[in-house]
Amino acid sequence: MSDHCESHPSRRAVLGTAGALFAWGAVPRTAYAAPGSRDARLVVVVLRGALDGLSAVAPLGDPAYADLRPGIALTRDGNGDGRAAALPLDGFFALHPALPTFARLYGARQALVVHAAATGYRERSHFDGQDVLESGQPGPGHTASGWLNRLVAALPAGEGIPPRTALGVGVVPPLILRGPAPVLGWAPPRLPRASDELGRRVLGLYEARDPMLAEALARGLDVDALTKGGPREAGGKEAGGKEAGGKEAGGLRGLAEGAARLIAADDGPRIAALALDGWDTHANEGGATGRLAGLLGGLDGVFSAFAEILAPRWSDTAILVVTEFGRTARVNGTTGTDHGTGTVAFLLGGAVRGGRVLADWPGLAPAQLHEGRDLAPTTDLRAVAKGLAADLFGLSPAVLASRVFPGSEGVRPVRGLVV
Amino acid sequence: MTVDPRRTALALGRFGLGARPGDLAREEPVEESLRREVLAGTVPLPSGPDLSATPTLLAGLGAEEQARKLVRAGPPDAAMPAGPAPQPIQERVYRAEVAARLALAQGAPTGFVERLVWFWANHFTVSVARGPRMRVSAGAFEREAIRPHVLGRFRDMLLAAATHPAMLIYLDNVASVGPNSPAGQRKGSGLHGNKGLNENLGRELLELHTLGADGGYAQADVTALARILTGWSVQRDGQAEGLPGSTAFRRGAHEPGAMALMGRTYLDVGPEQLRMALADLAAHPATARHVALRLARHFVADDPPPALVARLSQTFLDQDGDLARLALVLIESPEAWDPVPRKVRSPQEFLVAATRGLALAPEPRVVMGALASLGQPFWSAPAPNGYPDEAGAWASPEGLRTRLDVAARAGQLAAGTDPTAFADAVLGPLATDETRTALRRAESRAQGIALVLMAPEFQRR
């Protein structure tokens, strides 16, 4: 691990502010982070449509697994095809073969899996489920603000602490980031940018007449200053108004690269969220290859873009990947899976104490399934998010339970997620 | 009644697609123009050489895919056809559908009925993002399942939408098989030896299309409706009855037996079982509430006045889901005429209002590119709940930033237009002093046009 730390000068800044001058290699990792003392980066990736956790991280050691999922179950040997073999995590769980970057990080103890996890929501509507996941509320019907925005608002401000802003990736900001705290937005531009002069004039109009539009536009213009020399060039010359990107995976990677550049900047936002659609695999889900494999491959590309571009900040970075709920344990009649309950969450980054699967495994035997159909949830996702927020940013349990995740007093934070 | 141009400008934004040059000077009260569009009773249908019926489109796609396979499988030394590859049918048709929809929007007198079409097409979302079969049929879905019923009855639209090939494909019902049906009982007949239920369409019909998420249904109702829906599929090539690519009820895949749904029992009487179930769902009070809320939210305010929602809901129930009556009650409701414009135009509304106001013939390729960058291409919602309808979703930092780019581009394209005349034509008395001052100080005509397009009075409705 020490060689990894050495290559990341941002450590120096953190230690420097603490007044310490250590030799890098000699510092045990656990010595760093009094909670909240580091200049942490937190990225939350929301997978919309309900990720099939039993395919992303397969419980190969569960005797019921293979029989529940004819046609889509992963296997240790890929049925003879090495490329289709699930990637072993521990003796029980194995990772989908479309996630090699995650597997590499797991091997480097920088990635972990939380299995049989879910929010507190127990119905099966995507849209209510996403609202619960992103609002951080105990139930649906609260869409005024998201938990990540309230987390930003709860961060202590003061001397020497840079202003905290959050970044929403994409044209439509995800609910998780909506709310009172300032939020920037960014998406890969496809049109030639309007002149700064026009931007200033329109902003003047809004300031006089329409505070809501003024605030949004001001933030949109702010991001321009941050991205100069960054993602605009990366997306290719677009002076002709040609559409950038094209293929889905490339477009997704471009999105992640642009977001990562913003977060990596010295004065960039420390907290970001992006939402990826399309995980609703009701039919022809596929196993080691196929539809879900393609989606996971895109997600793995996002991981690798973040790891690459955030390298200078990697040791202070945590990326949390969550989805609204899981899918049925049993394959359905169309070689896919319907809406379920328990699923996986991923946590990766140099700040993560990885190389582990956290699971209080409920089992997949018929009597062990939730309502006879779904992986039973045993870990509350809020416990994971609260633990992460506590360890990364030093937020107290009281603040977390009152402001960030209201009504979650009974949900104890999972500690020790961060090195 | 004297004509108030302020009211006209407000109404053309809120209920219509935006003022065209001359519209604000009309002598007819705008209420009358809106009413007349509804009372005409017919919804314009797009037309064009590529806008065929769904079976023709799906068959055309199948034939092209088959032909490509044959070429690939052919002898390796076969001569490659010269010249650029022809555009695949799904791209050609999608472009034609976009162009036709834009043309109707551009020419509509007020655009109220087109707005209703867009609203209902979003309510019953199908999305081209799901692949070639959706790309080729999403426009046809709107022409065949939505437009004919926009001024008709909700239950007819519900049935047409739920059983249209595009919806059956989009929400995976085509392959859903009753576990106890003859097809379900044939072991090993599926690709992986298992055939059975898929509850996707059943769930979204309850949650999105009829009762709403808080409409009081349970998992058992979802499963029951999914079972009732088994067998509703798309006719395949080489089968005896029906045109390939049309909706088919395959009795052999239909789950036998009576089903209990929302406290009522539906006997297994074939395709009528679904028709009766959908008719009851369409008449359910929860459906009335859900539709009323969505309609009021779309036209009036993210948080619409409860009295307006209640009146729409009651009208829906009293008038047996008569959607023309519902549209009339909307424009006759004083709450819908709040002089404060609370909604932010969606990207689609913004772009069409711009091309209407500037009298710029919409170039489909340019409009498609702009809509893609603004995040709202036609028939491309990321999920079955359609595009969002709240200001927070569209008046985002990146969303407004991109609108600025689009406005700058439009300003360049329309640089022959006088900005003040343009402001008079589209904003009229709604233009604030600040906007007028900014216009006087604009450093170019292009910048002036862009300022009008970005003014709060144009962005809001």
Would you kindly provide a written description of the structure presented here, covering whatever features stand out?
The complex is a heterodimer of chains A (419) and B (461). With 419 residues, chain A is of the alpha/beta class. Chain A folds into 3 domains: 1-32, no CATH class; 38-188 and 247-404, 3-Layer(aba) Sandwich (Alkaline Phosphatase, subunit A); 192-244, no CATH class. Helices cover 33% and strands 13% of the residues of chain A. Chain A contains 14 helices and 12 strands. In chain A, the strands form 2 sheets. In chain A, strands 1, 5, 6, 7, 8, 9, 10, 11 and 12 form a 9-stranded mixed beta sheet that branches. In chain A, strands 2-4-3 form a 3-stranded antiparallel beta sheet. In chain A, strand 3 and strand 4 form a beta hairpin. In chain A, helix 11 (248-264) packs parallel to helix 12. The longest helix of chain A has 19 residues, at 291-309. The radius of gyration of chain A is 21 Å and the shape is globular. Residues 1-33 and 228-250 of chain A have low confidence and may be disordered. Chain B has 461 residues and is mainly α. Among the domains of chain B are: 5-26 and 343-459, no CATH class; 284-337. Helices cover 54% and strands 3% of the residues of chain B. Chain B has 23 helices and 4 strands. In chain B, the strands form 2 sheets. In chain B, strands 1-2 form a two-stranded antiparallel ribbon. A two-stranded antiparallel ribbon of chain B has the order 3-4. The model of chain B has no long low-confidence stretch (mean pLDDT 93). At the A-B interface, helix 6, strand 7, helix 8 and helix 9 of A face helix 10, helix 17, helix 18, helix 19 and helix 21 of B.
